[in-house]
Fold this sequence. Notes:
10-stranded mixed sheet, alpha+beta, Immunoglobulin-like, 2 helices
Amino acid sequence: MNDFRVLKHYSVSLLMTLLLSAATLANAADWVTIDNAWVRNTLPGQNVSAAYMTLTSQQKDTTLINVKSDVTDSVEIHSMSMQNGVMKMRMLKELPLTTGTPYKLAPGGYHLMLFDLKKPLSSGDKVNFVLTFKSGKHEQKQTLTAVVQSADEAAQDDHGHHHHH
């Protein structure tokens, strides 16, 4: 009888360890690789900025559906395009990603707009983001820290910062 109790305890412990390991592994596998993340510094009196990065989905049918940041309550996904000689910017509800295809969010193209900043952004500051991706009926949040830079600094510093957690 005593052996049975030890075996039962061992089985429950093993099962709990396996379940916790599986949950940890599921969270460890990010759906999207995020590289070269940076945020444009602001000029005096400016309360709007933009964030740039390269998103590469590892998961089939993944879409960026929401972005939050610690420097503002308002982050929007935007696209920019030239139409009849005029630069047009429009808000997107979401950004679909094709598996294995890098989507470069960069000046003059797709980007994240940060409105009503809580404080000015100076070169060297850090901005935290939570990006929410959706694939089928499932969602995954990924955190990211991006460094504030001027456009000139970012062009010189394009050596592959890799941030995803």
